[in-house]
Every structure is written in structure tokens, then in C-alpha cells.
Amino acid sequence: RLREQHPGAVKKVADAKSLRSEIQNRLQAIGDLAVRRAYSTESVQQFFNYVRGRDWQPLGILADFVEVDTKYESVVEDLLRPELQYIVVKDREQAAAVLSIVREVTKGRLECLVLNGDVPLPSPEVIDGATPLFNVMRFDERVKHVANYFRDAYLVNTVAEAWDLAARYPDYRFVASTGEVVRGHVIGWGEREALGPLSLKREIRDLDRKIDSATRDLSACEADATRLEGLLKESEALRARLVSEVQEIEKTILVTDHRVSTLTADLSHAQQRTARVAGAVTGRIENCLHADFH
User: Fold this and answer.
1) Distance in angstroms (rounded) separating the CA atoms of residues 285 and 277
2) CB atoms closer than 10 angstroms to residue 193
3) Is residue 195 a contact partner of residue 33, using CB atoms and an 8 Å limit?
4) pLDDT tens by residue, 55-101
5) Which of 77, 129, 168, 206 is 20 to 30 A distant from 9 in Cα terms?
6) What are the strands of the beta sheet with 186-188, ordered from one edge?
7) pLDDT digits (tens, 9 = 90+) for 103-156
8) Residues in contact with 59: Cβ distance below 8 Å, sequence separation at least 6, in sequence order
9) How far is CA 196 from the centre of its chain?
10) Contact of 175 with 181, CB cutoff 8 Å
């Protein structure tokens, strides 16, 4: 049975290694995209390419400090595409340094968000049938004040609902689940990116969990295969020892059989000699008795 189980265990190890390698490759590819900010505007990419590896770098972009319910990721990425690429810095001096690099080196245009966790966040107005965008987003405490910049955004199910609410609340933006944005009498829509910063972050987290799970599974499979291999080796050693012992026993039996055969033959010869001697003795006794009688 061990011979049947061991190949299966070895195959499980190979499959587990293949799965972990596949996850690692995907994680590496996604990680490279994150490092290169491949989802960002050209200006943001050029800026990070310039500062990468230097003594000072900003804290990241706003997307690094925000999480969104998976259901709304793509909608939020489309609606807040410019805001999610704000360069996050500690203070005004760092913001000035960023803008200086853009002005003198990388060119283009970008915005900086200065940390300020002390700004209070007023609750958004309650609108029946609409969910404040703020409610589906989770902010790092240091950047939560940025939510004030899109307190006017609400999520709705359909474009019809967006038009209806926009007519009643012309100062607010209403975003349909299909991506249309309605404000007053203006409606807009844009093609969704295949991989935005929020979905990329989520995939990295998912891949991290998967690779942890795959590593644990691989370790378990390797341990099981090692255990079975050890048992198989012990079984083979025991089998070899038993075969050797059986062979020795068979040799002993053969020697014993030969000895018994020899002793049997000797006994037969002895019995024959005894019979002859007894016959001879008996004959002489009878001869002597016969002679004395006469």
C-alpha cells in the first residue's frame, strides 16, 4: 500500500510547487506594476521613476492609503481617478519639493496631498436611495480629510435614479453602478481600466494570502511525502531482512534435511547390521544347542 501512496504524495508536492510558483510569478508581475505605478498618469510615473532609489521619496499616492469595498472598486477608481493619484507628503515643504521636481525635471502636472489627520469630517447629507461615496471607503487616519473633497458624490443603482436625484440635488454627483456620472444636466462616462490602483492593491493582498496558503500546503505535502518515503524505506529494509532470515532458515532446513537423511540412512544400515548380527548369533546358539543335545 505504501508503494501506491508514495507516488501520489510526490505528485501532490509537484502540484503544490507548481501552484506556488504560479502565484509567485503573478505576484511578481503585479508587484512590478505597482512599483512602476503603471496604472498612473504619465506625469506620476515619470515623477516616481525619477525619485526611486533617491534619499527622499514621498509617502506614496492616495490610493495607497485607501481601501474600498470590492463591489465598488471599479466605480470609485473611475470616479476618483485623478484624486487617487495625489502624491501624499508629510508637510508643505515636501509638497514644494515635489512640485519643484515636476517643474524642473519630470514636467507634466500632478497634485500633492499634505497629511492632516486633525480635520473633522462632517457627516454627508442623507439622501434616500443613494449611498454616500464616503461610506464605502476606508481611509488611513492621516489622509481622511481628503474625503471632504468628494462629499458631493453618491452611489446609486441605475442611470435613471442618477438623473432623478441630480434634478433634485443639482450640486451633487450621482454615480450609477454602470459608471455613468450625473451632475445637474451633465452626464459622463469613461472606459474602465483593466487594473486600477485599488484593484491592484486588493489582488496583491489576495495573492499574499494565497501564497501563504500555498506555502503551508506545500510544507504539509512535503512532510507527508517524506513520511511515506521513510516508511517505504523502513518497509523495504524490513522486507530485505525478512527475506534474508527466510533464506537462512531455508538453508538450515536443507542442512537439517540432509542431516536427517544421512542419519536415517545410517540408522537403516545399523538396523540391517543388527539384524544380520542377531541372525548370526541366533544361528550359532541354535547350532550349539543342537550339538549338546546329541
Assistant:
1) 12
2) 14
3) yes
4) 888 888 898 888 888 888 888 888 888 888 899 999 999 999 999 99
5) 206
6) 131-132, 153-155, 173-175, 181-183, 186-188
7) 999 888 889 999 986 777 778 889 999 999 988 998 888 888 888 888 899 999
8) 65, 88, 89, 90, 115
9) 23
10) yes
